[in-house]
Write a structure and sequence with these properties.
- Helices cover about 25% and strands about 25% of the residues.
- It is an alpha/beta fold.
- A 7-stranded parallel β-sheet has the order 7-11-6-1-4-5-12, with helices on both faces. A 5-stranded parallel β-sheet has the order 14-13-15-16-17.
- A hairpin with a 6-residue loop joins β8 and β9.
- The longest helix has 15 residues.
- The chain is elongated and about 60 Å long.
- About 40% of the residues are buried.
- The mean pLDDT is about 90.
Length: about 325
């Protein structure tokens, strides 16, 4: 059995949970896939997840799970795993998962394979590919413990690839949580700044690179983003220069994204940037260098001057 841990907050499902379901379905083979949703009140989220082509959806409800703490989540999931005895436990590599997944692995005394970008094989023989040294190398990993804790990189698997159309049963599972053993005090979710944005949830992204030349030219990209109802993002040099805040950075040292549309303006396509956006459904690249590596992953490429092409695109979009 493969157990997928879905993530929700205040009754809203994190879209990355569908990516984890897609990964589980891909590797399942003869293993059934179940989904568990921890929280204080998760019936609506469970109903949404029951549309997935999975064996069952489990609700792990407890008052201590109303606000996230690593101790409470670890105790709850250990309780579920002890009861269900899965071969693999999959979840999206979100900020929350990377906080408690190592603790869960240590508590169970099993292996944790994190930030997975690819899965080969099926069932118990599956192997996992994960980046190392900021994406400069990749490692192929096979864990021998049972279960194996696996987190999948956001964007490595497409949410729309998750098979739906099912009518999975929904069942509650009792979880044992010793509230006296919770060492953390729940606080409001961390935000870097009032205007911080979670690019991993964006449907469309306009990203700028060094080809934009100057901070004074950023309004050109912002105008296109506004016309497309997209979020503005950037490669690392732009954020390092202070032209855009760090929460707008895409890449191995920034955010990993998988929007429906990713438009790269003046981005050469260094590997550190590509690992953060290559899971995008459609990639459009605009660059005057015909040999730029970005064109190797682009679905559509325009070789030309972005200072001529972007205003023309914006003008056409504004007409509509």
């Amino acid at each position: 059995m493969i157990l997928v841990v879905a993530e929700q907050r205040d009754g809203a499902l994190n879209r990355a949970s569908w990516e984890a379901i897609a990964a589980a379905q891909q590797m399942a083979g003869s293993l059934p896939v179940s989904v568990v949703v921890p929280g204080a009140s998760v019936s609506a989220v469970a109903k949404d997840l029951s549309q997935a082509d999975v064996a069952e959806v489990l609700t792990a409800e407890h008052a201590a799970l109303g606000q996230y703490t690593p101790d409470a989540f670890t105790m709850a999931l250990k309780s579920v795993i002890d009861q269900k005895k899965p071969t693999f436990v999959l979840m999206a590599h979100t900020y929350q998962a990377r906080d408690f997944a190592p603790m869960l692995g240590a508590r169970l005394r099993v292996s944790a394979v994190t930030d997975v970008i690819g899965i080969s094989g099926e069932g118990a023989s599956a192997t996992f590919t994960r980046p190392m040294f900021q994406g400069k190398l990749t490692a192929t990993v096979r864990a021998t413990t049972n279960p194996v804790i696996v987190t999948v990189q956001i964007g490595a698997f497409r949410a729309d690839a998750a098979r739906r159309g099912g009518s999975a049963s929904i069942a509650s599972v009792d979880v044992a949580i010793d509230t006296a053993a919770i060492r953390q005090q729940a606080e409001a979710p961390f935000q870097e700044a009032k205007q911080a944005v979670d690019l991993s949830q964006a449907e469309r992204i306009i990203a700028v690179g060094r080809g934009i030349k100057s901070q004074d030219n950023l309004p050109l990209a912002q105008k296109l983003a506004s016309a497309m109802r997209a979020e503005l993002a950037a490669s690392r040099p732009i954020c390092d220069s202070g032209w855009l805040p760090m929460e707008r950075q895409v890449g191995s040292s920034g955010q990993t994204v998988a929007p429906r549309l990713y438009v790269a303006l003046g981005i050469s396509g260094a590997i550190q940037h590509l690992v953060g956006m290559k899971g995008s459904r459609t990639i459009v690249a605009i660059n005057k260098d015909a040999d730029a590596p970005i064109f190797e992953v682009a679905d559509y490429g325009i070789v030309g001057d972005l200072f001529e092409i972007v205003p023309a695109l914006t003008a056409e979009l504004e007409k509509k």
